[in-house]
Amino acid sequence: MAKLKTAFLGKNRNCHLCLGLVIIAYIVIEVLMYTGSLKSLFINLLVPVTSYIIVALALNLVVGISGELSLGHAGFMSIGAFTGVIVSNVMATMISNDILRLVISIIVGAIVAAFFGFLISIPVLKLQGDYLAIVTLAFGQIIKSLINNTFLGFDSNGFHFSFITNTVTLGTGGKMLINGPIGATATDRISTFTVGVILLIITILIIFHFINSKYGRSVMATRDDRIAAQSVGINVVKTKTIAFVLSAGIAGAAGVLYGLNFSTLVPARFDFNQSILILVYVVLGGLGNMFGTIISTFILVLLPELLRFLADYRMLIYAIVLIVIMIVTNNPTINQFIKKIFRRKKAEGELNND
Amino acid sequence: MNLKKIFSTLAVASMLVACGGNDTSSGNSTFKIGVSGPLTGDNAVYGNAVKNAAELAVEEVNAKGGIQLEFKIEDDQADPEKSPTAYGTLKDWGMQIGLATVTSGAGAAVSQNYADDTTFAITPSASSTTVIYSDADNTQSYKYVYQMCFTDPNQGVASADYLKNHTDLGSKVAVIYKSDDNYSTGIYQKFMDEAKKVGLDVVSETSFDNSSATDFNVQLKDAQSKGADIVYLPIYYQPASLILTQANQMGYAPTFFGVDGMDGILTLDGFNTELAEGVYLLTPFSADAKDELTANFVKNYKERYGETPNQFAADAYDCIYAIYDALEAGKATPDMSNSDLADLLIKQFTSMTFDGITGSDVTWSESGEVSKSPKAVVIKDGAYVGVED
């Protein structure tokens, strides 16, 4: 029994914390929804927040654990999202169960995104230095431009495809899946918060199992000292590739969840800013710190919406809050001061106990 | 475990609960009208114009003493991801009738929400067909979303026809459009189709996207080298202002011809409006029109906000009055449910003929598309002046 528990939860304390946080948050939100006291503003935000948390966790696997910088995670999200939209639309007539359709879309989206991640990693991860950052930066832009110029339709005769100029003509009952810069429109919104949370839990389990596995330890050893890692026989390229492909796949799955939550999806949505935004969530949450990433993503996605009451000053205050968080979390004096306060209280408590 | 983080979690959780606590009831004596639009960011001129004009119209309506309206606008930064949350905020507020959104991309993302919640919406300026139709062939409409502005395809067709019939402006046309923008490509495609049909000579077609929206030398040089004397700009005013500035620096002076997105260029901060002199644009509204409705609106707007209203403001003003007319004709009461109200408004909108400042004898089809005629205006001495046909 104990063994089964370890197998499911992993040995890491952080993993338990993350899972605990997610499950408690889920229960609280579900109760609030059930009693009808959760505003529709937040109900609309639940799935995007979950997707962002998942993709931020995936990015932290690359940036924090593997020590490589990726600036193209929005690109993987985009691939996942549009693949998901295509799969979901094509299967709409075959599978009537929304949840099943969503799950299949997520799986296909994750596989396609992981495949692209693998393609990129072949040349790049063999190199040392910041090449992954440069290539993923370009990758994100390329994906955006490609989808922007793609016209893909589907009717009873199968797929119709054209590039740059729209020459797609569809038979009756046909549907444009990707309409160039207009993107995907009138998508069935089949993403649900529950599926999102289950995906998030699976993501946390996968990431912590990876970190605590042989490969995870190899990746971290490589991050800390590449030469030392090589000298003890670790296949540096292979371990880094596994981490990156895993991360790309998870980002793709998050993309599907995100894409199927909106009735319209434009390719320009997943631009460079989006990649940087995800990186901001990771950096403010702490490199390699999954628990921190979950909390920082949650706060930073919600904050602009919570600040709505400030009207015109909303984005101004948001920027200030970002800067304050950045300064506070990285300031040793403040950190020490906070620690001191808690330590003193603890010490006082111990004294009283005597 | 870091206590600081626990605290921050608790803080956010408590905020969530606190915000979720008070639901607004709709058992009051006013109709609540909501809209989301860009109040910050690149397209803020549009959102603020709609906000100003709608507030003005609501005050005028309320002063009449009959039907009482209440108006609220939420910021969506013209972002399709932000507009559903803005919609959520409006729904929490108790919105009964919507003006949907100000911009197209954001609008397409919430049309389904309005349909799902059976709430009636009429958008002042989200002109894309994707706002009212759920499929690419424009056959299935959302049924609950109506438009006050004419749709993008109509603008493209009307522009091409206008240029064909007014050869005094020039005969060789260059087009610069934004390739990753729903609005711009929509007009561009229809413009090209119509240009081919009527035999308009398009010598240069160039595009840009969000990441290259600061330097237009390549596009302008291409147009200049091919001898274009008209540059057609189916884009928003922000990039258009840069195009005008850079063309001026190059010493290239063709006739610039824009569509409704060009509106707002005169109120853009830091833009030298002298450069916009002689720019033509196709719009349903010109502030110098002599009829009483327009003159009153322009006078009141100027008095209150210190600037000449643009077409977005005019459309928003008309939206409020169209809703007012429909509510009065349908004898609606504020305690009606959203879906009853929507049924009543749809019935009125599809049957009534509306006279506003953006057109007279305006009618709507059952799909929500408006029928009115676009006019050409030219910028003279920093103001829009109607062009006689």
If you had to describe this structure to a student in words, what would you say it looks like?
The complex is a heterodimer of chains A (354) and B (389). With 354 residues, chain A is mainly α. Chain A has one domain (2-314). Chain A is built from 14 helices and three strands. In chain A, strands 2-1-3 form a three-stranded antiparallel sheet. In chain A, a hairpin with a 2-residue loop joins strand 1 (150-155) and strand 2. The longest helix of chain A has 27 residues, at 98-124. Chain B has two domains: 31-150 and 291-373, Response regulator (Rossmann fold); 153-283, Response regulator (Rossmann fold, 3-Layer(aba) Sandwich). Chain B is globular. In chain B, helix 2 links the parallel strand 1 and strand 2 (69-75). Helix content of chain B is 42%, strand content 19%. Chain B has 389 residues and is an alpha/beta fold. The longest helix of chain B has 20 residues, at 44-63. Chain B has helices at 3-21, 44-63, 82-93, 104-116, 152-165, 182-198, 217-225, 237-250, 292-305, 311-329, 338-351, and strands spanning 31-37, 69-75, 97-101, 120-123, 145-147, 172-178, 201-208, 230-233, 255-258, 280-283, 354-356, 359-364, 370-371, 375-380, 383-386. Chain B starts with a helix and ends with a strand. In chain B, helix 5 (152-165) runs parallel beside helix 6 (182-198). The chains are: A mainly alpha (354), B alpha/beta (389). Chains A and B meet through helix 2, helix 3, helix 6, strand 3 and helix 12 of A and helix 1, helix 3, helix 4 and helix 6 of B.
